[in-house]
Amino acid sequence: MNDYIMAFLVGGIICVIAQILMDKTKLTPGRILVVFVTSGVILGALKIYDPLIKYGKAGASIPLPGFGYNLAKSVMKEVDEKGFLGAFTGGIKGTAAGISAAILFGYLMALIFNPKSKT
């Protein structure tokens, strides 16, 4: 039960930060996305994101900073194993499952529901 609460709190804090950025700044959602992914990479490189993953579990690993963290972690692992070429292949290997799932489920939702553009 404690894991669920921690995941909710950590994920909720990340979402609150995003909402504050959307409400109080002129940043577009695309730029906020880039800020979050980049912050995950930077916090992962500084070993600050590791404790967040340890305590927040899915609340820290599923949102956008978690994607950046996994991306950077995979690249570093591949560079250690394969050298310079790992900088190009590591990110693809480390995030392939998440990207594939997003594409698949997005496609399925488009088939099930009738998507409409805002007019």
Gist of the model:
The protein has 119 residues and is mostly helical.
Radius of gyration: 16 Å
> What fraction strand?
under 5%
Q: Would you count the extended β strands for me?
A: 0
User: Largest beta sheet, briefly?
Assistant: none
Estimate nothing, just give the exact number of structural domains.
Answer: 1
Rounded mean pLDDT score: 90
The share of residues in helices is over 70%
Number of helices: 6
Overall shape: it is: globular
Secondary-structure element order, N to C: HHHHHH
First-to-last CA distance: 44 Å
Low-confidence stretches: none
The helix-and-strand class reads mainly alpha
InterPro entries: Spore_V_AE, SpoVA
Protein name: Stage V sporulation protein AE
Keywords: Membrane, Transmembrane, Transmembrane helix
Transmembrane segments: 6-22, 29-49, 94-113
